[in-house]
Fold each of these.
Amino acid sequence: MFVDVAFPISGFQTFTYKVPVNLVKHIEIGSRVRVQFGAQKTNGIITGIKQKTSYFGKVREIRGLVDDVKIMTPELWKLIQWMSHYYMTSVGQVAKAVLPKNLSTRYTPPKNWMVEPNPIFADEDLKKTKRRAPKQYEIFKQILTADHPLKVSSLKNNSSGVLASCRGLEKRGLVKLFEETSLPDVTGFTFDPIYKKVDFNDHQQEAVSQITLAMDSNIYTPFLLHGVTSSGKTEIYIESVRHCLDQNRTAIILLPEISLTPQIAGRFRAVFGDTIALWHSKLTQAQRSWTWKEICKGSFQVVIGARSAVFAPLKNLGLIVVDEEQESSFRQDSPAPRYHARDVSLVRAKYEAACVVLSSATPSLESYYNHLNKKLTYLHLPKRYGGAKYPQVHLVDMLNENDESGKLGQIFSGLLQDKIEARLQKNEQIILLQNRRGYSPVVRCSDCGEIVMCPQCKVALTFHIKESQLICHCCGHFETQRWEVCISCQSPNIKYSGTGTQRVEAILKEMFPKAIVERLDMDTARTAKGLTSILKKFSNGEIDILLGTQMIAKGLDFPNATLVGIINSDLGLHLPDFRSGERIFQLIYQAAGRAGRNTKLGEVVIQTYSPDNPVIKNAAQLNMKRYYNIALSERNELQYPPFSWLAKIEIIGKNQTSVELLSKRIAKTLKGDYKGLKILGPVPCYLEKLRNHYRYQIVFKSIKEKDVNGKKLHHFIQTNFMDIQKKFRIGQNRINIHFDPLSLI
Ligand code: ADP
Ligand code: ZN
């Protein structure tokens, strides 16, 4: 018996190996094998099995299997092949992205003691305990007030030995003790379970019935769940998953960034307990392997995670939920495969005859358009749950804001200051968004205009006051020396201009010295623990003002946060990208949605220098429909998605001339263009130099009218680039192919 084996290399060819007799029974398509490849011992994946080979060279034997359990399902294998074809990436490379490195690690998750009241304890025993063991009695009171089992270690106790006390209580027949595996969720990464009583309103009930009905039919059904912020989307996911499990099927919940939404994981844990596996980038290799193996064995029925959770090897998949489906973090740009987890989830669900719920308060324009065209079944939650009102929004024109001397460029408007003051007085909480980290994004000489740049990238360095460093936000390069004089003209007039979160923080602390301010951005939330601890503190009311970048805009549910302020809503609005308007709209709308999620009326203050810009204006009116109509007609006019298909070829290398020449040569040799195809470039990328590499791009736009399903564009790119190495002398340069890129900059 012979097999074809693929390797994680960019080339598409496979290699023939012989199967030793003892392995014949264990070999399947999709199995990973250990082999000798050239001079190297390495792992590959089996893509074909055959009895004979037409290959006349020396055929080596495979050395062994990589995994001791079956890791692939037929549907997953089909998905890998689809990705390989669609994203033009070799099967070996796709498999490397899909599968954990190896499954042969030893990892045993730790266990916790849990305790709950015995439902049939006798009053007499209780009285006896009160008299004879007052300490145990105190502990029992804590256990009794909770409506769910508690971790023994979480019980408050004046003396040590809570476990011993609980054992005592167990002997007295008052409680039950049991051990629970503490799953690798990276401790401190999720909130503790959040328990809720759920009572669906009519809109919610309608959404739930449509999803469950589709699930019962066993037919692939993609939904767009469009629910305003705080309409109860998460409760819909939970109910749908419950139905899915009742049917003995499994479910995947994709979150844009699991570390930013610990509350959602907390709510799922509360309902489904140990049937849930968490899957995200912060898991160690060992935890990853353990989780994957357990999923293969069927120990978990639900996987919650970031984009790569779409590959979870669940059998009998019934449901995939993509929460905040418009989020760009579902896209992987590097390394290959350059895929979009939302799109992959649709394909996977098709193979599994499952339901997909794409969910958002502000869907991507593509999904919105697909709903208009009836490609997605529309589910609408038009109201906040439980009668919570929409926040009142104030739009402040910063051109009218100046200080006593008449100077413009204020960071806080009078209105926002007053509103913050008023909420602090009432002991309510405030969320402030400034979508840029650091202190000052541009350090410039006031005399000659020289800007301090990153030596590796063509971008300005950002000054960070906390770290006392100049940092490149593209490559991480940093310089510790302060710029006392200009490097070009030696002038001492160095100006730290622009505003990042650190500057806002400093001003806030000065303005409201009594308030407790915390900053949440990539600098303070480097670790999952740091992040969760800030969110928990805010949730417990230990923080008055939470200031942050876009990290604070998503998914958080804090009933006492009644004021949201957006310091500079124009940030990013004028980036030369066709999606920048859509992004800013979504960010403002989402951030505004954090205010007043309960009975207390919320307020939002949006500061801008462009109050008439349709993005800002409509976001301030929370008018999604109007903005989306404007955006769609713009896209239509300029023939951008969803009215066209896009592909992008990036040419990257250390030598600028060589990159430029190669790009031009490629553009010249392109063959087979057709009506409806537009080729733009080659031009230098918006970020022309990154990490010492120069970057050029060629963009391909294929109009949907002429290319309904994108196959023409696909074919064009395939035929032109299939054998890049053979066709072009690329030398030290690299060529990256992106299908459906999210951005052209
Ligand atoms: P979204 O995800 O749409 O922003 P959430 O699911 O977070 O909204 O719901 C907002 C709040 O309302 C949450 O605290 C949630 O538990 C509560 N809620 C929503 N629907 C229900 C329901 N049917 N019964 C009880 N509470 C609900
Ligand atoms: Zn840099």
Amino acid sequence: MSEAPSASNAKSGSNAAAFDASRPAPRHVAIIMDGNGRWAAGRGMPRVEGHRRGVEALRRTIRAAADIGIKVLTIFSFSSENWSRPAAEVGELMGLLRRFIRNDLAELHKSGVRVRVIGEREGLADDIGRLLIEAEELTKANQGLTLVVAFNYGARQEIARAARRIAEAVAEGRLEAAAITPDTVSSYLDAPDLPDPDLIIRTSGEQRLSNFLLWQSAYSELVFLPVHWPDFDRAALEAAIGEYHGRERRFGGLVAKTGS
Ligand code: IPE
Ligand code: IPE
Ligand code: MG
């Protein structure tokens, strides 16, 4: 059974620097919210209890992200591969999404959050599809934090969808095959107008991307925290940003690019 360290000792890596609120926050932070099951198992609870507590961690994180000045927060809430879990757990996760939107959408809207959803809509239950559209429609003019919910999301599937639509555009004569660039591919992804993530955080100690934002993460800084997602809080987010601020982003050049 793995231990669940508290968020206060969630610093990781040798570049960890103290969080400095006077420095610009990373514009786009993406989080792989992992470790719910292990958090629960470590306490002798059913996995679903970890997922429930994970929703509370998500609420805290959305508030903290907006407060810190992050513009875009992407959260990995259900992967294309998570369908392979037992039906009861998949059902619980679907129920939690339903309840999250029903209970929290009004409050998110009031705080100026704009909700976006990436991932495959096809194959989702009709009512979930409707809730996702309702969340996006209600909040589409909001100017605060953009909350991108990666739901039924897999990066390879997203890139394959883009490739399919690019092929259609070429077949219909709307696009020259020879004119396809990386920017063209980006423009066919699920949320083409959003900047790439500056920082990707994964909780639970696992150090992999698990099919998350594979195209967009080309130059993202990766921070892996030992804390399980239900224990994630503002201190853990600030620790990750502190580590991010200690990194040198070079984008292939020789000079560190500053800014956020
Ligand atoms: C993350 O926690 C939530 C989802 C993947 C939906 P997990 O359920 O993966 O928890 P662990 O990794 O098994 O502990
Ligand atoms: C990634 O976590 C997916 C989400 C957080 C929604 P997983 O728990 O599914 O990833 P693996 O299976 O450990 O790689
Ligand atoms: Mg996991």
